[in-house]
Amino acid sequence: xxxxxxxxxxxxxxxxxxxxxxxxxxxxxxxxxxxxxxxxxxxxxxxxxxxxxxxxxxxxxxxxxxxxxxxxxxxxxxxxxxxxxxxxxxxxxxxxxxxxxxxxxxxxxxxxxxxxxxxxxxxxxxxxxxxxxxxxxxxxxxxxxxxxxxxxxxxxxxxxxxxxxxxxxxxxxxxxxxxxxxxxxxxxxxxxxxxxxxxxxxxxxxxxxxxxxxxxxxxxxxxxxxxxxxxxxxxxxxxxxxxxxxxxxxxxxxxxxxxxxxxxxxxxxxxxxxxxxxxxxxxxxxxxxxxxxxxxxxxxxxxxxxxxxxxxx
Length: 313
Prior knowledge:
mainly alpha
């Protein structure tokens, strides 16, 4: 098989795969539109005709429903993955119940788009179009595989930084509230209102904790769930400390005071660590940018005079 036949075979295979993907997408869209038409018919008989302004919402709803259906299929294949993904999304700030299925569906759609784009670029690669199409296909594939997880990790790291910075303030306010005579549950509700402006993402988890406690969930389970949602070591240590204090019957105010002091020391140590690491981090910029300029300023006059002296001779 010569090169021309190989290119024709690859082109035909690419066309067949594209046709199959288009037919599958049309079938899914047709089924969803038919289901929505039936729902509209039932709603028309019960509550009157649908307003024309709802057409855009219907189209976007169809796309979202298709993505959600793909995510549900991925979740059915691996139920354990769904719980892991849901925890990742909660730590990244997505608390909707359907966030996991939408995320899995969006990742499947991204892989499908990258696959179709790679198949479309294969004929250009075989015809000697240079490394550009191959690099573009690799970039699209890497983006479809790695971009969703990287976006979640970036959001999670930003939120964990806020949680770590706000945890000592949270403990100080809890200590002040408990020592003033409030119970721990009432102190959490009070601290949530105080921290809403400075640490908005942390207060969201505190509100969840307050709602769980009001709903009758045990304090130990509620604080463990709070620590799991935050995903930081300080929250896990606080949940463990509260459980031990409740089991052994120790004073909650003294325990929180000791733990708050420990958190303050940890934050001071992190600040000192960053300050001590600053000279080492500045070494590379100094060598690359400042040292060549300084060297040029010091040596250029001597080089100029030397060239003048040698030229006169």
